[in-house]
Amino acid sequence: MSRTPIRAALAVVIRDGATLLVRRRNRPDAGLWGFPGGKLELGEDPQAAAIRELREETGLRARALQPLGQFDITHVAPGYRLHAVLCDAASGDPVAADDAEDAAFFPLGAVISGALLASRDVDRLALRAALRSR
């Protein structure tokens, strides 16, 4: 019996040299910092899901700019695929909501240095986004 693949999207926002992250409330990454994101709804594309999740978890509104890549995260579940989406520099201050305990912009250097207790590959994805957003 084959499992239905799980698809999710991440909203990667870089603003003024800082990266937006949320601290997860729920498993599998409870307590870790990561990008706002979640599962795609039926018929939803990754860009729309990233924008929706960004709004739900932080209150920020943005536009999807470009895909940053797809990542299989089999350590979470078989067939789990993340679609990372670079989003525009949303205005306003993030306010944690939904399954986010906290939300804040962090200097890119702190994110890529591993100074934060973050989900897997957050540092690499933040660097990729920063290079593409120039």
Automatic annotation (TrEMBL):
Q: SUPFAM superfamilies given for it?
A: Nudix
Superkingdom of the source species: Bacteria
Tell me which UniProt keywords the record has, alphabetically. Hydrolase
Q: Which gene encodes it?
A: nudF_2
Q: Name one GO molecular function term.
A: ADP-ribose diphosphatase activity
Needed cofactors: Mg(2+)
Supply the Gene3D superfamilies for this chain. Nucleoside Triphosphate Pyrophosphohydrolase
Give the PROSITE patterns listed for this entry. Answer: NUDIX, NUDIX_BOX
The protein's name in its UniProt record: ADP-ribose pyrophosphatase
The EC number on file is 3.6.1.13
- Signal sequence, renumbered to the chain: none
Whether Hydrolase counts among this entry's keywords is yes
Into which family does the record put it? Belongs to the Nudix hydrolase family.
Transmembrane ranges, per UniProt, are none
Q: Which residues form the Nudix hydrolase domain?
A: 4-130
